[in-house]
Amino acid sequence: MYVFSRNHILSCLITSCDLQYHLLKEQIAKLKVTESSLVKENALLREKCKLLPQIPSAASKEFPPRSTLGQRTEVETELRIGCPGRGTHGMSSHLYTNQ
After folding, report:
1. Which pTM was predicted?
2. Which of 6, 10, 52, 89 is the most buried (most CB within 10 A)?
3. Which residue, 92, 49, 47, 97, is CA-closest to 73?
4. Dihedral of the CA atoms 22, 28, 32, 33 (nearest 10)?
């Protein structure tokens, strides 16, 4: 059975904390270098994107153009109100109007 003095345990703990501090400090320095290179790469890619012609994205096709947002739109739905099997209230197919 080993018996360690209080001073020996504290010394080991301090050494362990110092080692961890230095390892984390090293890791932070490496991450800062990586961040710097990624920021530069991001700036270059943004410049390249400015030079490319604008291609409509899939997201722009899903939504109406801004000029039609204030206009009236109609959507046909199959909305049923009520519990399944107990009948429904209203029509099975009606028009929803957004004004």
Report:
1. 0.44
2. 10
3. 97
4. 50
pLDDT digits (tens, 9 = 90+) for 12-56: 999 999 999 999 999 999 999 999 999 999 999 999 988 888 776
Q: Does an H or E element contain 99, and which?
A: none
Q: Is residue 27 part of a domain?
A: yes
In the structure encoding, which two tokens stand for residue 76, read together? 């046909």
Residue 53 lies in a domain: yes
Domain count, the chain: 1
Whether residue 81 is contained in a domain is answered as yes
State the CB neighbour count (10 A cutoff) for residue 76: 9
Taking CB atoms within 8 Å and a gap of at least 24, the contacts of 77-84 are none
Domain assignment present for residue 18? The answer is yes
Which residues make Cβ contacts (< 8 Å) with residue 27, sequence separation at least 6?
A: none
Contacts of 1 (CB under 8 A, 6+ apart): none
Percent share of the chain, pLDDT over 70: 67
